[in-house]
Every structure is written in structure tokens, then in C-alpha cells.
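**User:**
Make up any protein.

**Assistant:**
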Amino acid sequence: MIEGTAAVIHKDEKLLVCQRPEGKRCELLWEFPGGKIEAGETPEECLIRECREELGVTIEIEQLLRKVEYEYPEITVNIRFYFCKLIVGEPTCIEHNDIRWRTLDKILKSPLCPADKKMLELAAEDIRRIMQFNIAKQKYDETVDYNICNFREKAYDKYHDPDDSSLYECVVDGLTITLAQDGLCSINRIKAHSINIVSDYELIRKNMFDCLVWPAYAMSINQMRSAKYDDRLDLLLLDIEKFYGIVNSKTELTSLITAEIFKNCELGRAYLFPNTFYWLRSFCNFDGFINSRKLQEFVEKHGSHFHAKKWTNSIIFDDCYYKVLLDKVTVYKNLCK
């Protein structure tokens, strides 16, 4: 058996595919670039070397997509397919007959090498969701940078909400759930409480795409937080902790559970949308939610468990709360570096 690697390289909304040369196995069929792991190499080292030799580029490996074993008439291959991005260079056709940037849908209709076709049959939806996430993040980052540039020129009227372009999907127990980014506070809060709007906006928004994310529905956690809690994250986390006092990984959405959530949680209307309920349930408990969403700096730890706590004595979004928010975001970003 031959052990090999292949790179699913993404750029904008397309993937790079290569056409095998004439005279070789699977001639003129399309594949993802890669090759055989040599003695002493890790799979990742192999893939980086192969992309340099075959395409003249340097890649960064983001995640393993699938391991695929395929038995050709003359040989059996076991290929690790990795999702990757370009770091240095533009792909050049060095060893292949042709190379192309194509959408996933077009690749699925192309004549593919059998192992690559098998991988796509298994992982097409995963690739689609990863690309959707990357596109949403890119649009979010571009919007934040656009706003920062305008704020520096005091062109506040040109503000665009970065959350408007941040939709992407995940799958929980077979249920496809649309997610959306949610800022730690609104731009109006920053304008009202900030001494330096540019620096505060950059702190709160830049490189923060995956900090707060909720299922995006008509009655979302985002909307309810604004309406019930004056945009305060600490009060929302207190309410979510109450939710996990009722719900665990096996809890079903019954009339009794619905009544208990309504009784104990102020944001019950948001939590009781099925997609939101099952998304929250997938984290099992409050500790799982905080760890998975990397929100440790916004809560306190007592022993081995996390607990939410009010950040100030008041329950309104005032200067005191805003200062605590900035302090916590600073610590959060320093730890994420």
C-alpha cells in the first residue's frame, strides 16, 4: 500500500484541481495535488514539499478532511486529504497537464481520479461548509477594515454592519443550523462610551469573527440580548447558565422542558427555537459551552467549573460596564495571539 497526501487548496470561492499528464495512471483525469510520503516524512511535511515541487507554492495546512483508501487494479493507495490555503506564490503548471481554479459544483461534474472522487463523495458537504465559513469570515474582516478606515477619517455615516455578511452553517445531530456572528456591543455603544472610537472599535471587532456566534433566526439570542439586557454580555451568560441548569446533552424539547425554560430563563423565547435549543444542547453543559466557544475570559472559574457573574453592580450598559468590557476583551485577545 502506498501512503500519500493531497491538498484541497481554497481561494475565495474556488478550489485548485490539477489534470494528470498523459501516459501516467489516470491520465487526463483531475485530482487534488499531492504525492507519496517519503521515508522519514510526516504527512504534513510531504504535502508541503509536493505542493512546492508540483506547483511552486507554499501552503498552510488548516485541517484534515478525510483519509481515503482506494484499490486500483495495480496498487492500493491510502491518501490523507487536507484543507489548505496559499501562503506564498501562485500555482504554476509544472508537472500536470493543466491546473484550474474551479467551484466545488464544477469539480463534482469533472472526470476525477477515483480516489479523489471517493473523497468528494464523503466530504463535499464538509468542504462546502468550511468554504462558507471562510467566505463569511473574509467578508466580516473586510467590513471591519472598511469601517476602521472610515472612522479614521471620521466618516461615521459610512458604517457597515459586519454581522450582515457573517452567515454560515454547521451540522448538529444531522440538523443543519445557520449561524451568525454577534458583536460584543453595538457601534452606538462604542460611540456613546468611547474616548477613542477607532482604537476601541478595532479592539472589540477586529479579528473577533468567531468570538460570539449564535443561531440566526427571527427571535435570535442577539436580538433578545439587546432587548432584555441592554446589550450586556455578562447578563446573557448568567441566563445561559440557567438554561444549562435545565438542559443537558440528552434533554428533549418537550412541553415540560419548554415550561421550565420559560419559567427560569428570561431569554426563553430565543432558546426554544429548535435549532437554537439543539445547538446549545450540543455543548452538554455550561462548562462545555464556555470551553467550546472560548469564552473563559468573560466568566469566572470556581474549582473545576465556570460560572457567570455580573461585571458591575448595575444592570445597565454604562461607562463602568464598558470599561470592564474593554479590559476583558484585551485579556481575551492577548491570550488568543
Observations:
- Residues 114-152 form the longest helix (39 residues).
- The mean pLDDT is 94.
- The chain has two domains: 2-123, 167-336.
- Residues 2-123 form a domain with the Nucleoside Triphosphate Pyrophosphohydrolase fold (CATH 3.90.79.10).
